[in-house]
Amino acid sequence: MPTGVHIRDARQQLFDAAERVLLRAGADGLTSRAVTDEAGCAKGVLHRHFSDFDAFLVDLVLDRAAQLEREADALAGSVGTGTVAENLTRALTTLFGPIPVAIIPLITFRDELRARLRQAMPGGGIAILAQATTAVSACLAAERELGRIAADADIDSLTLSLVGGGHLLFADRAAGPPTTEAVDKLVTAVIADAVRRRRGLPSGSRPSP
Predict the structure, then answer these.
(1) How far apart are CA 71 and CA 93, in angstroms?
(2) How far is CA 169 from the centre of its chain?
(3) Is residue 106 part of a domain?
(4) Are 178 and 171 in contact (CB under 8 A)?
(5) Tally of CB atoms within 10 A around 122
(6) pTM (2 d.p.)
(7) What are the tens digits of pLDDT across the range 30-74?
(8) Of 79, 63, 62, 198, which Cα lies nearest the Cα of 136?
(9) Same structural domain for residues 114 and 189?
(10) How far is it, in rounded angstroms, from Cα 27 to Cα 3?
(11) Same domain, 185 and 101
(12) What number of H helices and E strands is found in the chain?
């Protein structure tokens, strides 16, 4: 990489390289050498822009978290259209894309990274999962406001079930991402009672969220 490359260009190239390494080799394979080799630059380029590798990882995670927040804003625009299950299935599929799912183990297993993330932003110690949780909770709250799920639906519990179940579905990188049908099945099961009670359906009947 030429020494005259603008810092933001260098940072983005390093971030892109890190994401490719994560997808290919996982969190264990993500090292400063692997990143700079993937980016095609000298190792000193990374340390010219970041005090150490954990500082680089903090900015990488925050950059991806900001992207998830933008994607969550876009997802919010679909609330009230289609069905509740369709909207939440789309949300989980977007929020647990390949890069976010690859970053979560990185945060989980690097204590120093979690500590620095907590200092950098509220809830930063569980970044990515925090953004997914906030986005799903906002979608559920908006659907409840529109009367499409029960007025007394427990948003926090529904959110935890959807985010936890969604993460488990998407976490097996070797098997590949789950099918839309598998995600929809999870979503439909989690929100079934909230949708049933909103429609006044008898217990045991099957709603179409």
Answers:
(1) 11
(2) 13
(3) yes
(4) no
(5) 7
(6) 0.85
(7) 999 999 999 999 888 998 999 999 999 999 999 999 999 999 988
(8) 79
(9) yes
(10) 29
(11) yes
(12) 10, 0
